[in-house]
């Protein structure tokens, strides 16, 4: 039976600690105070020792009673027994105690206030009067010596304080310079990655895919995977089944069962293992937070400590190279806009949730090289629903970078307009549209963060409000890209959907990126992991993402009054060829109900479509 904390504590009190080791190794070990285990000492060793001690005491008594010593001690005894000396000693003790109470360190002694000076003065007076009672040639310091000593101590304290203060200031300056240097290096690195991704996104992707392919096809990589596959064959635990069982236990408030299952999952989870082990490592954080009821607090901590921009960009670049999903989305958007701009000279892009603006540099480059020269371009960037996730300074940086590239491409000017407000509050009046411009509204996987429930029976939800406002903008084309999954209204269906969706993503990364990659670790456990923790551990307003499948979006859009446009065959052919030639064979592109679908091994993960207002001209 397990020992309770109380029993453990009492047991620790009753048991004697082991004997202390001797400081000098040639000495015997010191025994405990307990009688048990003490070494027996013979009487023939003890008796001589006692006799020697008694003999020494007798010799001390004879020495203390020596006539010469008593004659020398007599004057001092008279002084000590006089009433006047006893009074002075009392004054000295009181002054000394008062001084000790007012400051126990040298700095306080040296910086005493006027009251403290009175105490010092009384102490010196008492010392001087006592000095007069002693024989000449005594070694006690007089008033002048004591004042000099106090001054020297004060000066030494001041010098030491100034030295410590200056040393601390120098250390702060050195640390600040080091921090600034690191920040400047990170900023420079982030700018290089951003410029590379914006200006040479496709070329960067191809180079990244070639590096990954070489790494995966190397002899060392093949040998490592072969050895890992042999080890994994011996692992018969179905981690996915354990994860679902743990979620079922949580859904039924069986916390004991959930805790036991979580312990089993942790035994097989690993951030550097195979796809399933990495997924388990990612999901256990959310399950554990939900079990102990700290999901909201954990999410707040994760939001308070986001990854660095450089770390995020490196992980994003890796995902961009390994997977075709974002490239297909950007190509679909760019080619749709290019076709809408045929014969037009003014373009206005309304971009919901602009983060880095990767796609717009490529579009500007194509527009600048078209026949007739570059058109007038205006970009309205609508910041994220929560401004803290994308501060105004970040949007200003994107604007400066886009303007710089537009100037290099030969654009006479680039208009850039920022709107930092709730998406459901953005309407046609905020856009400053013009009659002859081509208006394009773009959403790249962002509308799933909008609430799909208003909380009131008759009020439209924010998601419907945004779509209705887009309809009123009457865009020439509304380009919508969504992640194809649905969480439902309760925890268990959401967990199942999240598990299968993330399992596909982790399988993709395991098939295309070496397991030793540090950026892959950041991509899985930080970027994807944060979203998984939120979806598993949080509820209500703390739940960030509320995705829907493409058929649900289709029904919602049509109910609002949007009409779906047919897919362009020329765009589909280009996208299919790029995926087939540049990416893993298990990626696929298909069509359904005027939606362009992307997926992995038969599972649809992302979808894209185009829309206009229902009463717009064909």
UniProtKB/TrEMBL annotation:
Stretches for region SAW: 537-612
VHIID: region residues: 316-381
Sequence segments annotated as region (Leucine repeat I (LRI)): 237-297
Region (Leucine repeat II (LRII)): 397-429
Family: Belongs to the GRAS family.
InterPro entries (UniProt xref): TF_GRAS
Organism: Urochloa decumbens
Motif placement: VHIID: 347-351
The name this protein goes by in its record: Scarecrow-like protein 9
PROSITE patterns in UniProt: GRAS (PS50985)
Keywords: Transcription, Transcription regulation
